[in-house]
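Re: the request from the purification team.
They wanted to know what the chain is likely to look like in 3D before they choose a buffer screen. I agreed to run a prediction and write the result into the notebook, where they can find it.
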Amino acid sequence: MDTLHRGEVEVRNLTRTFGSGGQEIRALDDVSFTIPAGKFVSVVGPSGCGKSSLLMMLVGLSEATSGTLEVAGAPVTGPDPDRIGVVFQEANLFPWLTAGKNVEFPLMLKGVGKAERADKANAALDLVGLQGFAARYPHELSGGMKQRVSIARGIVQDPDVLMMDEPFAALDEQTRMVMGDELLNIWERTKKTVMFVTHSLTEAIYLSDHVIVMSARPGRIVDRIDVDLPRPRTFEMTSTPEFTRLRNRIWEQIRVA
């Protein structure tokens, strides 16, 4: 790993096509951007613009047709949870495992010892506000709590970068706002680089240092917006003229994409 670029995400001239010949579909077209280490960046765009395809390539679960992807100073060649943590829309917890064992699971795959696994899982659960819930099974947890377990599992190996694909989309609005604040607390404490894919313009602005705006398919970068709102963020900011200006700017980009 290149320690000089630890936590940085760099995408250059990325293209992704599906199919072949006359059936070829271009999902992403010449996408380039950089996320500096320690920044929180959201990606927004119309449905089908390639946001999730982009994230899947960055976490090593899909291959680019052309272009380069580097995370933490090294090319992405496949899943690497030591370097890149990932949280999906669905928590995808194993129902037969407790919260603690779900968080331990990637460590077990690596052959980490039982005591060390438990210590690291408990520390990750503490970080997401689930102290004392390690022995609970998924059916005993609320939707928001399940997503906290999923986040804990994503960070238990202390990756440089956390990739999140609409992790709060299935939650009700109140829980979604609470989870957004919880995520910001985790980010403030860890200073990990976060790339957050979302359909919610309000969520993107509220959470982020920068918002990357993508066009309709084939997905291209049409804007990169700096969010200059002070931190810590508060719900009251969502009704300010500056917040509204940023949301309208993003909407205009998506509406005409």
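For the purification team: The chain is about 35% helix and 25% strand.
Please add any questions underneath this entry.
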